[in-house]
Design a protein that fits this description.
This protein has 2 domains: about 325 residues, Spore Coat Polysaccharide Biosynthesis Protein SpsA, Chain A (Alpha-Beta Complex); about 80 residues, no CATH class. The protein has 16 helices and 19 strands. The strands form 5 sheets. Strands 2, 3, 6, 7, 8, 11, 12, 15, 16 and 19 form a 10-stranded mixed β-sheet that branches. Strands 1-13-14 form a 3-stranded antiparallel β-sheet. Helix 14 packs parallel to helix 15. The longest helix has 30 residues. The protein starts with a helix and ends in a 25-residue tail after the last strand.
Length: about 525
Amino acid sequence: MKFTEAEISEIKAHGLTLEQVEEQVSLFTHGVPKVQLVAPATVKDGVLKLNKEKRERYIHLYQDHKEELDVLKFTPASGAASRMFKNVYQFLADYDPEKETLSAYLKKKDDKFLDRFFKKQKKFPFYDVVMQRVNELYTEEQLEDKDFKKYAFVKTMMAQDELDYGSDPKGLLIFHNYDGKLSTAFEEHLYEASAYARQAKTAKLHFTVSPEHKEGFARLFDNINPSVSADTDTTYRVSYSFQKPETDTVAVTQDNKLYRKPTGELLFRPGGHGALINNLNDMDADVIFIKNIDNVLTRDKLSMLAKNKKMLAGVLLELQEQMFEYAELLDKDKITEEQLEKLTIFLTQGFSIRLREDYDDLSLADKKTYLFNLINRPIRICGMVKNEGEPGGGPFFVKDKNGKVSLQIIESAQVDLNDPKQYKIFKQSTHFNPVDVVAGVRDFKGDKFDLKQYVDPELAFIASKTDNGTPIKALELPGLWNGAMAKWNTIFVEVPVKTFNPVKTVNDLLKPSHQAKSE
């Protein structure tokens, strides 16, 4: 591919290499291959379901070793709240209180979302905050009109020159109301960390945020840190990072040519949450808990949540110890044939790894090399909840282009749903990915893995977008818990669905699970 001097200059100034851009354009040109599903991961095969005795054992295993470990809570938190308010924005664009009543509008639109929004309005944790501002902006006479009052509530909540909730990151939004004491999603993560990631009364948290919001997070932390620290008897060490410019991707035209903005410059777009593998790669800890910013529970459920987190960490520690023992034996070439046989059982039964078909025909030396490469990898323990219809990915056995079968978290967009066999397998999925990961990123020598070496670049996503009204193609890097961790050793463990409490739309805050009990 030939670049102009101007393009070369722009690409290098953005932190990308010409080779990276060539690879990106190649994906646009040839398309991103669909994954090949082999079977859903289920409790019978691929998803570990632990009985009460085993759960307690893993909880105690983590608890007993926690103080010796370096523990970190890693939270992607750059997501904007705008998508939460999609229906609300549409309402503001469509509704004119001077031309029709609210009931007539809702009936005409048959909008069950907005109907619930207005009927349960007072249950929103930020209701009093918004209404305080409404009362400052409008007269009592204006607010006597109930329809106008509801319209004023929405307008005040969303207007750019007012509260402008849609422009905030989710982490800075009010999620819970404890009898007048309001709590953001960010604050709830601090309480979470104290419940399962605290060592010597100190908890370390890392948030990936957008550069323009870093100051807001830091200011909020400064404001709440004294009270939260006192309440939890915990010292918090909080750090932040941004998605790196060198993980951005170019946009192309419909015929796969580099797209230029009206100003003549190339358009670089954020590479999606998969780019955060670079941020995670900068982290160095024994145990890293990974969870999205919008998935938080009210504090009365923290004990239950902590037990499940500790359980997952206990599974990690036990399996990792065995992995390290085998890796060291292989590295020093001190493994016996009997131990080699036990290792294959450990990999196939413990990690649901399917060995290459010609494994038995390999020489002893080749078997050792092959098994060392299999076992000496980062490890992730992924909590999975029973599928109750939530949109998103799930656990599957997947075959790659080389015929290797492995456990992966797969989104519907990665599957050829027009293929009847693939569609059937996808629909047979019994579990859902809540992004509840405990990661081990160090090897048996204590050195950190280079996580970028374990990404499958072909598991990217191509999306149709527009720029100034022009249709373009955009590329998202392999998702953080999808293709970015494709070559990790993976265990799926069933966790209770009540540990999963995300906020994808503003109405999710109306669910009983987000109605906070008094402290």
